[in-house]
Amino acid sequence: MTTDLTPMPDDWERALAVVAHPDDIEFGTSSAVAAWTAAGKTVRYLLLTRGEAGIDGTPPERCGPLREAEQRESARIVGVRDVEFLDHRDGTIEYGLPLRRELAGAIRRHRPEVVLGFNHRETTATGKWNTPDHRHTGRALLDALGDAGNRWIFPDPDLEPWNGVKYVVMANSPEPSHAVDVTDGLEAGIASLEAHRSYLLGLTPPVTDVRTPMTAYAKMVGERFGGRPAVALEMIAR
After folding, report:
1. What's the whole-model pTM score?
2. Measuring CA to CA, which of 36, 45, 51, 61 is 20 to 30 A from 167?
3. What total of structural domains would you count in the chain?
4. Counting beta carbons within 10 angstroms of the beta carbon of residue 209, is it exposed (0 to 12), middle (13 to 18) or buried (19 or more)?
5. Contact status, residue 159 vs residue 187, Cβ threshold 8 Å
């Protein structure tokens, strides 16, 4: 697809990123987060797991704390101070009412104007089958947006409904519609992915260079965005 991408609107102040694993935001999208926080916007992260099943050579009880620490450092690099984990088991996230309830509660607590998720579709941008964790998290998030605004769904006397989400965008989608100029955020985005050192080196084969693919990706997206380095997002109609 060669259709030009539309600029992501900037008439908002607070965003909540909801993903399954440490590194989900960093594979491309953290450059946009860096651009947003540099512009004075507030971005918070909510992760369902600590990614404890992500390194084959490291047992989960050691891997989880390690990846959590790397995620917090990665977030700091792009100006994100608030990082929350929900303690789901990596690799076994289930779509259902309990997950919708948790995410609706998080949306009511954080009251974002933008919600950023990770590809909820069956396939990835490369055509590969998407993982269950990504699909289930993304779809539960989309459903929880409506739940969060209805006081009679998952009623909570301590949390008021929230209908203030203006934009819902999904990273790493095979069907992008919008883009964010990351001219000034790309370096921080690269550094934020490099902060996941243990995970990257634990892959097969180990990943020792993220600058080259991230720069190439930003350039590729930029070809559909006026030649500026950019991150692509799919905006979900509400």
Report:
1. 0.96
2. 51
3. 1
4. exposed
5. no
Tell me which residue of 144, 143, 138 sits closest to 105, measured CA to CA.
144
What is the domain extent for residue 189?
6-236
Is residue 113 within 8 Å of 167, Cβ to Cβ?
yes
Q: Kindly list the distances between the CA atom of residue 100 and the CA atoms of 105, 136, 234, in Å, as whole numbers in the listed order.
A: 8, 10, 21
Residue 213 lies in a domain: yes
Please report, for the domain that includes residue 217, its CATH number: 3.40.50.10320
Q: How many whole angstroms from its chain centre is CA 75? A: 11
Distance, CA of 53 to CA of 89 (rounded, Å): 8
> Along the chain (238 residues), what's the average pLDDT of each consecutive run of 10 residues?
88 98 95 98 98 96 98 98 97 98 98 98 94 98 98 97 98 97 98 98 96 97 97 95
